[in-house]
């Protein structure tokens, strides 16, 4: 208390120095000041917490103050108020320099002392000793009351009598210090702001520390013990500024950005549409396929229609005729369900086929492997090569109008004279007949001891002679058809003076010997083996004979004018079947059982070997152009070779079910034919174009029937008429037929 | 009349007709319109007309008639015909009736030793046939052979009677496969029981291949021949020795030991143009020769200049040809198919046949126009049938099936008979055909 009194004294001393006005004010505004002080203290206390650890240093050193503080007790508020009042004074009297310093110091310590005291009790409410004690309740509650609240002793604090407005205005106008007055509603009193408080407010407004005696730049005192600290200095998380971004991540990002820019990555995914399930749709649609699963949905059964109704309309009900016609259908084609009418649902009988249906379903499931069939949905018609219509390829032989009857056994070979007037035929009955093509009249008959194998007209029109192979002999027969001069020539040609010395060299005698044959009127050539075929050269002087059993001397070439025989200078590989002269060039074709070889007769060398791939060649024919060859085989295949194209067949036609016996080209029409033991002859259109780029066109045209089978043989030979599109066929039924267009 | 006894229902299907004819009076009927049932066929119409005639003439023997409506022969029932031709049945229908063309009598066949290859009946007094035994025969009537023409060494392919004016006797030309033609002269009036063998008075050489056909000019001065050497040659037929080659005659005489002298002639001119066998020639007018060939063409030749004036192309081989019909201008030809085609060369710009008859089943070997009629044709075929045709209907009038084998030749004779020869070595005469 003594201290307080001392202070009071000091204050009073100082106060005496200061102006009286302030002195007056002091008492009035004591309460207010306290309040303001409170607020001021709060401000430094806030700054204290984060940046000013050295704030409390004055009071630690000042032990005297400390003890003083402890003595405060209940009258603290009063002393405080007095002090703050003095400090406020001091601020005003700041201009005094000399003794003011000391005072300031003292004052400062005082103030800090007092501050500390306030800070000890945390709540600001405690240090305030307001008159009213109602607390923080809305004052509206006391609006209609006589009192504004209660004081510390519980007595009602009476409301002051209200001045009316005019009165208060006049009062305020008179009073020069009215602007410093503030009405405190809580305590129901007017408070006047002191000078000190004003200063404080001014400092705050300027953004300075509220107390002028506060030193923001006090020397730093390191309170921390740096050694043997157990915990880290700071437990705070790593600050963001310390973060180092990853180089590789940034590279990756760059890459991604680039990819997005280039459109490799699409960020905007199309919105997935809602998938609806098509209840009656086909399951084998795209979704399953996309999964790449070999999922095969079970076939959907047909939905019932009107005809399955128990009482369908009349048009669904088949007539009796239709039902009967179902019986004529195939089992599979028959409709499974035949609609019937019932008057009511009651009258419908049980399904009679129920068990059967289930059984068949089981069979289906059991027997059919559920494998996806690769079915190509192509119209089979479109796969066919586009062939010209047969109608456009007319004329070609179609119907048989003439028959040449007279032979008593199978006709093996036929040949037509170059002008097309005569026909020669050789038969197994040992006869050769000459027929008139036009009428079917048999003109002449030669009889031989053995079966005739082959007949061939001389290709020259002026020399109507026929070469006939019978057994081991080849006869050159004079038909006696030409006029006198021609006959004379033929007689000269066929005349043979000395049958004794047929040839100069000895070994050729054994191959073939020439004899005059008076019985048949011609020349007889005796070979050492059975002759199977005779072919004339186009100039009618040379002809070749083939002896299949003749081995190295199997193919011979004879010259009629010189009565000379020579063997071919080529080595034969395989069993020869037939030989043909090229129609224009000096080329000779020999077909063995497997292959066909073309030899140049002039250079005496092999030109080409045609690989047929056939099992057994039976016949060969050369196109009149000479570049195409057809080969017939015993297995019923017909090969067309384009000599310019390759040594492999250009086309293989498999049409005959049995052996092909002969093939033939037409001399002028684009036709070729094959005849077979199945009693048919096929006629084809075989167009060879002069343009080398265009492949031959082969169109099957007609199947010629009519011959009857005899001893398993059918048609033995076929030849075209040289000038008309007619085909002659010789049958094993000993009839020769002529098919005309 | 049987018309009275028909009921109402059939009445509705009646047509009003009037029968007209160009026939002579005993065959005429009153030209009154009468109603007849429309379902009558040719037979019904024929009996009807016969009844009508019998009404006027009681000793009338029924005979078949053929009926023409608008120039078309009735070959089905009347209502069908009217429907097919869309002729109105409302107005009175004019039906013309003619005598039915059909053979009434089949004469005894005249037997030959070999196939009969050709026949000619252009002279009503006799028939000439060529035969495969290289003889030609002259027949006065069926089975009555008066002359045998011998001399050829090969099959006679064709015979032709030459009408020579102002020359006594008969001249016949024969073409043979021995590449020659021969001309024969004989007198038909000699009636001897045994046939006379005569030899040719003229031999025409020149063809290098078999001669296929021969035809004489209508004046009889020349003949033409077609051959397998694809030429047509024209020859003089006169027997004067002025143009003949005397030297060659002498030579022939020595070689052949002929009893009488034989002339030898050479071709006056050669018509070259065909590329294949000339199978048939016709020389109907003085200056025009028609020829058919295996090269599928019919050609018209100017006999004077030897130029080919026009061609008709067919797609088939042609074997026979004849010219006749309306103003002797229609060309009938048959060949290597069963269709007999008739062209009208006067129609410009088309080579399509105007008529096609296709009742045969095999090659047609011969076709001949009737001399007088515009409409009638005879054709023979390898199917063994001889058919009579009328241009006014597509069906054959009559089918003569007297041959057992191929028929090789056919001709008209005397205007009312059809003669035909075939591979059964027979010459058949079907007579009593009342054309016109």
From TrEMBL, chain A:
Residues 1-137 are annotated as: Disordered. Residues 142-397 form the BOP1 N-terminal domain. It is found in: Nucleus, Nucleolus; Nucleus, Nucleoplasm. SMART domains: BOP1NT, WD40. Pfam families: BOP1NT, WD40. One of its GO terms (molecular function) is ribonucleoprotein complex binding. Residues 74-90 have a biased composition (Low complexity). Signal peptide: none annotated. Its main location: nucleus. Residues 16-27 have a biased composition (Basic and acidic residues). GO terms for cellular component: nucleoplasm; PeBoW complex; preribosome, large subunit precursor. It comes from the Eukaryota. WD repeats lie at residues 404-445. GO terms for biological process: maturation of 5.8S rRNA from tricistronic rRNA transcript (SSU-rRNA, 5.8S rRNA, LSU-rRNA); maturation of LSU-rRNA from tricistronic rRNA transcript (SSU-rRNA, 5.8S rRNA, LSU-rRNA). Keywords: Nucleus, Repeat, Ribosome biogenesis, rRNA processing, WD repeat. Residues 62-71 have a biased composition (Acidic residues). Required for maturation of ribosomal RNAs and formation of the large ribosomal subunit. Belongs to the WD repeat BOP1/ERB1 family. This is Ribosome biogenesis protein BOP1 homolog. The lineage of its organism: Eukaryota, Viridiplantae, Streptophyta, Embryophyta, Tracheophyta.
From TrEMBL, chain B:
This is Ribosome biogenesis protein WDR12 homolog. CDD domains: WD40. It comes from the Eukaryota. Keywords: Nucleus, Repeat, Ribosome biogenesis, rRNA processing, WD repeat. The lineage of its organism: Eukaryota, Viridiplantae, Streptophyta, Embryophyta, Tracheophyta. Pfam families: NLE, WD40. Gene3D superfamilies: YVTN repeat-like/Quinoprotein amine dehydrogenase. Required for maturation of ribosomal RNAs and formation of the large ribosomal subunit. One of its GO terms (biological process) is maturation of LSU-rRNA from tricistronic rRNA transcript (SSU-rRNA, 5.8S rRNA, LSU-rRNA). It comes from Lithocarpus litseifolius.
């Amino acid at each position: 208390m003594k201290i307080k009194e001392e202070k009071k004294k000091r204050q009073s001393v100082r106060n005496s120095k200061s102006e009286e006005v302030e002195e007056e004010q002091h008492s009035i505004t004591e309460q207010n000041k306290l309040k303001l002080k409170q607020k001021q203290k709060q401000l430094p206390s806030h700054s204290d917490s984060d940046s000013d650890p050295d704030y409390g240093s004055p009071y630690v050193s000042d032990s005297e103050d400390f003890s003083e503080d402890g003595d405060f007790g209940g009258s603290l508020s009063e002393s405080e108020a007095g002090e703050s009042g003095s400090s406020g004074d001091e601020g005003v009297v700041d201009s005094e320099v000399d003794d003011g310093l000391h005072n300031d110091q003292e004052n400062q310590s005082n103030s800090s002392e007092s501050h500390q005291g306030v800070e000890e009790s945390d709540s600001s409410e405690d240090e305030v000793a307001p008159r009213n004690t109602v607390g923080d309740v809305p004052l509206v509650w006391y609006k209609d009351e006589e009192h504004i609240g209660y004081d510390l002793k519980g007595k009602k604090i009476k409301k002051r009598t209200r001045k009316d407005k005019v009165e208060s205005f006049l009062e305020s106008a008179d009073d020069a210090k009215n602007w410093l007055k503030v009405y405190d509603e809580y305590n129901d009193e007017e408070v006047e702001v002191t000078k000190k408080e004003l200063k404080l407010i001014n400092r705050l407004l300027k953004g300075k520390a509220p107390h002028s005696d506060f030193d923001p730049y006090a020397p730093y005192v390191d309170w921390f013990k740096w050694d043997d600290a157990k915990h880290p200095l700071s437990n705070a998380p790593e600050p963001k500024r310390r973060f180092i971004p990853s180089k590789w991540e940034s590279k990756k990002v760059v890459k991604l950005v680039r990819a997005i820019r280039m459109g490799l990555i699409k960020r905007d995914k199309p919105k997935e549409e809602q998938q609806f399930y098509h209840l009656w749709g086909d399951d084998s649609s795209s979704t399953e396929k996309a999964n790449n699963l070999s999922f095969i949905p079970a076939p959907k059964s047909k939905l019932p229609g009107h005809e399955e109704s128990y009482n369908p309309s009349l048009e669904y009900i088949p007539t009796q005729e239709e039902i009967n016609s179902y019986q004529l259908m195939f089992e599979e084609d028959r409709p499974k369900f035949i609609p019937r009418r019932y008057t009511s649902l009651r009258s419908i009988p049980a399904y009679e086929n129920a068990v059967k249906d289930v059984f068949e379903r089981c069979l289906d499931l059991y027997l059919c492997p559920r494998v996806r069939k690769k079915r190509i949905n192509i119209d089979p018609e479109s796969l066919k090569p586009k062939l010209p219509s047969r109608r456009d390829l007319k004329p070609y032989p179609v119907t048989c109008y003439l028959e040449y009857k007279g032979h008593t056994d199978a006709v093996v070979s036929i040949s037509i004279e170059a002008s097309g007037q005569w026909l020669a035929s050789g038969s197994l009955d040992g006869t050769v007949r000459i027929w008139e093509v036009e009428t079917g009249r048999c003109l002449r008959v030669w009889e031989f001891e053995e079966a005739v194998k082959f007949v061939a007209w001389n290709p020259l029109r002026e020399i109507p002679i026929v070469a006939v192979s019978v057994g081991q002999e080849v006869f050159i027969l004079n038909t006696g058809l030409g006029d006198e001069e021609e006959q004379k020539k033929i007689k000269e040609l066929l005349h043979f003076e000395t049958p004794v010395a047929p040839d100069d060299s000895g070994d050729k005698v054994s191959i073939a010997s020439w004899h005059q044959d008076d019985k048949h009127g011609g020349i007889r050539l005796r070979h050492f083996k059975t002759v199977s075929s005779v072919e004339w050269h186009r100039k009618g002087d040379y002809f070749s004979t083939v002896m299949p059993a003749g081995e190295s001397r199997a193919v011979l070439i004879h010259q009629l004018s010189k009565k000379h025989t020579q063997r071919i200078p080529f080595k034969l590989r395989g069993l020869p079947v037939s030989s043909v002269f090229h129609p224009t060039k000096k080329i000779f074709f020999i077909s063995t059982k497997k292959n066909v070889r073309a030899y140049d007769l002039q250079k005496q060398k092999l030109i080409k070997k045609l690989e047929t791939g056939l099992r057994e060649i039976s016949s060969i024919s050369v196109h009149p152009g000479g570049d195409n060859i057809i080969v017939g085989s015993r297995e019923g295949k017909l090969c067309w070779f384009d000599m310019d194209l390759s040594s492999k067949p250009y086309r293989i036609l498999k049409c005959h079910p049995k052996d092909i016996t002969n093939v033939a080209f037409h001399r002028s029409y684009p036709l070729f034919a094959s005849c077979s033991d199945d009693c048919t002859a096929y006629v084809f259109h075989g167009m060879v174009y002069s343009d080398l780029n265009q492949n031959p066109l082969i169109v099957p045209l007609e199947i010629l029937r009519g011959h009857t089978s005899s001893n398993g043989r059918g048609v033995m030979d076929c030849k075209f008429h040289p000038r008309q599109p007619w085909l002659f066929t010789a049958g094993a039924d000993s009839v020769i037929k002529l098919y005309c267009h | 009349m049987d018309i009275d006894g028909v009921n109402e229902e059939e009445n509705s299907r009646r047509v009003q007709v009037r029968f007209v004819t160009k026939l002579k009076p005993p065959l005429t009927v009153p030209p009154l319109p009468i109603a007849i049932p429309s379902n009558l066929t040719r037979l019904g119409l024929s009996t009807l007309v016969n009844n009508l005639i019998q009404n006027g003439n009681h000793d009338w023997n029924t005979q078949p008639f053929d009926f023409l409506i608008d120039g078309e022969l009735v070959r089905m029932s009347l209502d069908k015909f009217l429907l097919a031709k869309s002729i109105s049945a409302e107005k009175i229908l004019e039906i013309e009736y003619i005598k039915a063309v059909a053979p009434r009598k089949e004469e005894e066949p005249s037997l030959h030793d070999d196939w009969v290859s050709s026949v000619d009946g252009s002279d009503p007094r006799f028939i000439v046939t060529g035969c495969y035994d290289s003889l030609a025969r002259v027949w006065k009537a069926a089975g009555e052979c008066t002359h045998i023409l011998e001399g050829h060494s090969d099959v006679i392919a064709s015979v032709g009677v030459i009408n020579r004016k102002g020359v006594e006797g008969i001249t016949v030309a024969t073409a043979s496969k021995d590449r020659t033609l021969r001309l024969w002269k004989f007198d038909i009036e000699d009636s001897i029981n045994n046939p006379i063998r005569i030899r040719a008075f003229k031999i025409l050489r020149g063809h290098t291949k078999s001669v296929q056909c021969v035809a004489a000019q209508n004046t009889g001065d020349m003949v033409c021949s077609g051959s397998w050497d694809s030429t047509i040659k024209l020859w003089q037929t006169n027997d004067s020795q002025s143009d003949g080659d005397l030297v060659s005659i002498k030579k022939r005489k020595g070689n052949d030991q002929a009893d009488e002298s034989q002339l030898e002639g050479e071709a006056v001119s050669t018509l070259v143009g065909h590329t294949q066998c000339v199978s048939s020639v016709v020389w109907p007018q003085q200056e025009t020769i028609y020829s058919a060939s295996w090269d599928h063409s019919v050609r018209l030749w100017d006999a004077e200049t030897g130029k080919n004036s026009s061609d008709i192309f067919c797609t088939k081989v042609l074997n026979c040809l004849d010219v006749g019909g309306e103003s002797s201008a229609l060309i009938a030809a048959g060949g290597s198919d069963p269709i007999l085609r008739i062209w009208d060369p006067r129609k410009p710009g088309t080579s399509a046949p105007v008529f096609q008859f296709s009742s045969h089943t095999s090659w047609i070997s011969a076709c001949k126009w009737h001399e007088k009629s515009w409409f009638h044709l005879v054709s023979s075929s390898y199917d063994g049938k001889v058919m009579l045709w009328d241009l006014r209907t597509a069906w054959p009038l009559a089918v003569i099936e007297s041959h057992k084998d191929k028929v090789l030749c056919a001709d008209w004779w005397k205007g009312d008979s059809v003669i035909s020869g075939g591979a059964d070595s027979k010459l058949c005469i079907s007579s009593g055909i009342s054309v016109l």
